[in-house]
Amino acid sequence: MRIEKRICVIIIMLCLAGLPALAAGDVHLLLGQKGSNESRFDDTEAKDQAVVGLMLNLDFEKPVVLAVDLLFASEDGTRVVGVADPLVFFTDVQSMELDLGVRKPFRSDSRFQPYFGGGIAWIQLDARQTVSGNLGGPGLDFTDTILDDSDSAFGFWAGVGIMARWDSGFSLGVDLRYSSAEARLTPVGEPGTIDFEAGGSHLGMTAGYVW
């Protein structure tokens, strides 16, 4: 995990410790999958990525609640091209996404509470790809790095979901969201950058506590 991600996690944890004294709300652990928006990942095994994150809602008795979500997505995969002297492409994609905005909950007096929301997304994308093969003889194996870079960018997110809440404060739910931001990565040995879509479509199950 890069230093930026560690710092972000520490800040979120410190903030969560004091939030119940500031406002009503809820916090949820999210587990799910992200489908990358980037078409360059279509032919790799890293397009669909596992997601883990935290969703936080703060209720200041307004029509909407403040939403602060932190999501981590990662996947790697190998693709083999050719039969004789095949080339093996290894791709590793990771992203960290901080979503800030608002959510509008409905049916607050019901156990089942749907919602929708949206706002600003800050997404950091890390991508690495290598190619390995053989030049046609013993001892002629090679491995070259095609891409090994990271960048962050601002964009947007929008989502919908539903939570089922119990009197004990425990809740379960489903969250669906879409995010978009363009990161600029530099291929190895190339003078210019390439725009990569860092966002994607997320679907996750949530479990948490309402205070």
From TrEMBL:
Keyword Nucleotide-binding annotated: no
InterPro entries: Beta-barrel_OMP (IPR027385), OMP/PagP_B-barrel (IPR011250)
Ranges of residues in domain Outer membrane protein beta-barrel: 12-181
Domain of life: Bacteria
Secretion signal span: 1-23
Keyword list, A-Z: Signal
Keyword Signal applies: yes
Protein name: Outer membrane beta-barrel protein
